[in-house]
Structure to design on (712 residues):
């Protein structure tokens, strides 16, 4: 007898809104029904067509008939539309589930002998509960179209042969190739040599760049903040200057300062009788230059942060330590250092992730040069990301670029999950729920 | 704890020498580029640290020979609207995620976390195609939308962390007094979050000044160029014959941004520590 919930649920599965109508919530019912009608009439044909396109990626290539070009299918557009229709389908499915759940829930209320909400109550509940969703909608739309959609697309490319010279639409079609690209990256000697060589340098670079800036920053923060140093603010301000100058400008300045032929650094070295150093021409020196330049405008950031932490440490701690008879050195090792490391250690991981992807520095400073003859489209100082850039925009090797980017993503995703699990925001998440 | 005796004095002198040397290294490139901009020659090899004769010619050349004023206005416009749009998007998202408990919240947080991990231009080909389809390629609007969209995941996490730190009793008390969601946000949360809001606004204002890659991808025509592209093109050619003009341009870009930065330094460091890592 009391089975309104099941009936309403089943009805709303059959067609959106039927369950609500059965629950005598006419306005809501019509609203849901309208969504489904809208979807079937306007979206369904597009969706079906796009999904077919996504599977085939087009079957008629561009042709020349009597000297005229007859447009064929454009695989990449078919793919983009396919993904859009997948997203539309996903949103529709979510609304469908909401509809069924709602019908079922209201049915339950009726089973318990309660009256379902009328239209005014419903709207009130909607406004109250819906407020966060309302706030999130703009960001969700932006993220969906500018981040999620491009990402899905980028990932899918890894499973196609989208590349120059033979598979570039609109002149020719693109096909799905499964895991072939992943296998090739490890199996083809020229590709795997480049990949492992570049990856090794990327990791080396990221570790060295982070560690040098972190510890030099720590060193100067401690120096400046130690007792008996006057003009603390003056030193801090001077050291922060390199960090404050827009990055692309300082990197371009450095590119010229280290110029092997005309740069001032080599001129000064010659003036004091040292042979000019091939800062950018020699592979090892080029790598050292990258790290030096990064140190130059990377350490002030850590110095500023750590200065903040050091000045924030309570004076009582030091006083207590002094009374107990601890020396300055002991105070440093037992109080200052642990406090600073505790507060800044998460930034070390973030710094690694940042440098791992520090495309701007590498590209603007060395452009990945000097070239490496044994590499596939990469130079000695190329990191994975700048290699990716070259593969994409200079060589049109979209398929391989996509494979590499998936691998980069896996590394970075692991790092940031570890990192965020350790931050305050995430820990409090667990406390609240 | 102050250093005493001969050894202490020696250490102190050594520290000051070290501090001075580092200070020189830190500002040398900056002084060098400022000096270069007053140097009469044009190319890198003809510049000396102290110019034999000071000239302002390169500054005028920027506006006469290059469209520096136009680039400046373009960048300013893009930066301003990016800042505006991204602050709205970031703050709304962070507010919802911090102050409300609703279905899909955890999913949303995790999604943002994962999305943040993707390097920006992994999505470049697709963004390019999308903008092409929407007729937004080679427009500033397209660039603004891409920048603002990209600012959401990271920024929202940071601001959310800050909002979480505000005692819940404050918005709850306002709610009891009959304030609506919007009033609570504008009258209670906003004033309490000025440091982090300043940080978000500033970093999204500066980002377009610094960015080079996306701008290069989206903007094609000469009259749409931003400063980063214009300056890059001056000094990466083989001959490097526009070096002093680049120096003048660099000075003109760096000075306002640097001043802004120094002025707001306090907020930036505060924002970084409070949003991300303070425990």
């Amino acid at each position: 007898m009391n089975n309104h919930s099941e009936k309403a649920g089943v009805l709303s599965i059959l067609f959106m809104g039927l369950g609500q109508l059965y629950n005598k919530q006419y306005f809501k019912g019509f609203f849901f029904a309208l969504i489904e009608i809208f979807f079937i009439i306007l979206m369904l044909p597009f969706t079906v067509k796009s999904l077919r396109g996504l599977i085939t990626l087009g079957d008629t290539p561009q042709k020349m008939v009597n000297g005229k070009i007859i447009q064929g299918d454009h695989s990449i557009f078919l793919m983009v539309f396919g993904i859009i229709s997948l997203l539309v389908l996903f949103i529709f499915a979510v609304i469908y589930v909401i509809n069924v759940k709602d019908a079922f829930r209201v049915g339950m209320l009726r089973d318990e002998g309660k009256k379902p909400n009328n239209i005014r109550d419903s709207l009130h509940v909607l406004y109250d509960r819906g407020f966060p969703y309302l706030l999130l909608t703009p960001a969700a739309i932006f993220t969906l179209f500018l981040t999620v959609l491009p990402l899905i697309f980028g990932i899918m490319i890894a499973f196609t042969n989208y590349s120059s010279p033979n598979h570039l639409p609109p002149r020719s079609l693109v096909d799905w190739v499964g895991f072939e690209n992943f296998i090739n990256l490890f199996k083809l000697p020229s590709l795997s040599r480049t990949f492992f060589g570049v990856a090794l340098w990327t990791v080396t670079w990221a570790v060295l760049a982070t560690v040098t800036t972190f510890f030099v920053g720590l060193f100067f923060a401690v120096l400046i903040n130690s007792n008996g140093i006057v003009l603390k603010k003056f030193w801090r301000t001077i050291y922060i200057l390199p960090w404050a100058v827009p990055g692309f400008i300082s990197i371009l300045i450095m590119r010229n300062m280290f110029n092997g032929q005309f740069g001032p650094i080599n001129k000064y070295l010659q003036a004091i009788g040292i042979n000019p150093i091939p800062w950018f021409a020699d592979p090892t020196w080029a790598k050292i230059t990258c790290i030096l330049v990064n140190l130059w405008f990377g350490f002030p950031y850590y110095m500023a942060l750590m200065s903040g932490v050091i000045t924030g440490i309570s004076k009582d701690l030091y006083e207590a330590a002094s009374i107990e008879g601890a020396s300055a050195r002991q105070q440093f090792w037992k109080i200052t250092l642990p406090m600073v490391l505790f507060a800044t250690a998460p930034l070390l991981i973030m710094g690694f992730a940042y440098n791992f992807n520090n495309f701007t520095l590498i590209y603007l400073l060395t452009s990945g040069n000097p070239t490496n003859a044994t590499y596939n489209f990469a130079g000695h100082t190329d990191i994975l990301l700048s290699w990716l850039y070259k593969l994409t925009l200079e060589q049109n090797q979209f398929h391989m670029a996509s494979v590499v980017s998936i691998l980069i993503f896996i590394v970075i995703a692991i790092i940031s999950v570890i990192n965020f699990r350790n931050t305050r925001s995430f820990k409090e998440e667990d406390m609240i729920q | 704890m102050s250093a005493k005796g001969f050894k202490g004095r020696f250490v102190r002198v050594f520290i000051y020498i070290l501090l001075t040397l580092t200070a020189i290294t830190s500002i040398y490139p900056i002084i060098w580029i400022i000096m270069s901009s007053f140097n009469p020659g044009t190319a890198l090899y003809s510049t000396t640290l102290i110019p034999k004769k000071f000239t302002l010619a390169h500054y005028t050349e920027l506006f006469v020979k290059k469209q520096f004023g136009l680039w400046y206005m373009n960048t300013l416009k893009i930066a301003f609207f990016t800042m505006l749009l991204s602050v709205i998007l970031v703050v709304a998202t962070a507010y919802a995620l911090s102050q409300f408990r609703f279905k899909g919240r955890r999913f949303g947080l995790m999604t943002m976390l994962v999305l943040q991990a993707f390097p920006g231009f992994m999505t470049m080909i697709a963004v390019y195609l999308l903008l092409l389809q929407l007729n937004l390629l080679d427009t500033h609007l397209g660039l603004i939308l891409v920048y603002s969209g990209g600012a959401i995941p990271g920024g929202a996490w940071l601001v959310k962390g800050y909002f979480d730190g505000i005692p819940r009793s404050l918005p709850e008390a306002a709610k009891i007094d009959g304030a609506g969601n919007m009033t609570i946000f504008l009258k209670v949360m906003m004033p309490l979050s000025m440091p982090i809001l300043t940080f978000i606004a500033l970093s999204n204002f500066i980002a377009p000044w610094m960015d080079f890659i996306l701008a290069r991808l989206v903007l094609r025509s000469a009259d749409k160029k931003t400063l980063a592209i214009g300056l890059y093109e001056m000094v990466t050619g083989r001959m490097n014959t526009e070096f002093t003009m680049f120096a003048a341009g660099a000075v003109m870009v760096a000075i306002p941004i640097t001043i802004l930065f120094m002025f707001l330094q306090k907020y930036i460091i505060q924002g970084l520590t409070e949003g991300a890592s303070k425990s």
